[in-house]
Amino acid sequence: MSESVSINAADWVNLPDIAERFGLPITKVHQLIKEGSLLAVRREGVLRVPAELVANDIVLKHLPGVLTLLRDAGYNDEEALRWLYTDDDSLPGKPAVALGGDLAREVKRRAQALAF
User: N or C: less crowded end of the chain, CB within 10 Å?
Assistant: First the structure.
């Protein structure tokens, strides 16, 4: 992903820390990114993941599905991250934050609607 992605994630987690938190080898974290279950961007030359996307030591339940829907709508990874971190007045903030709560299915519905 491009170093120029400009999003306002509250915090960033590097891949070795994710591997440790998940109890996985680093190669499995790279595989999650490669297969589209997780998004990462370079910050200061290091691949990092927005902390909201890896809450409770797991990838958010609905994230892989939302990423698939966004890709089906023609979004690349950079655009998907921007969509996830763009404030939405009808949600409490950003879709990425809402994915971790009761509005996760609503975020998924909105991502699905982008394809139409």
Answer: C
Instruction: For residue 84, give every residue at least 6 positions away whose Cβ sits within 8 Å of its Cβ, in sequence order, or none.
Output: 7, 39, 50, 53, 66, 94, 95, 96, 99
Lookup: tokens for 78: 């950079």
| pLDDT, tens digit, 9 for 90 and up, residues 30-68 | 999 999 899 998 878 889 998 888 877 667 788 999 999
Distance CA 115, CA 58 (A): 27
Query: What is the three-state SS of the chain?
Result: CCCCCCCCCCCEEEHHHHHHHHCCCHHHHHHHHHCCCCCCEEECCEEEEEHHHHHHHCCCCCHHHHHHHHHHCCCCHHHHHHHHCCCECCCCECHHHHCCCCCHHHHHHHHHHCCC
| Predicted model pTM | 0.81
| 44 φ, ψ (degrees, to nearest 5) | 55, 40
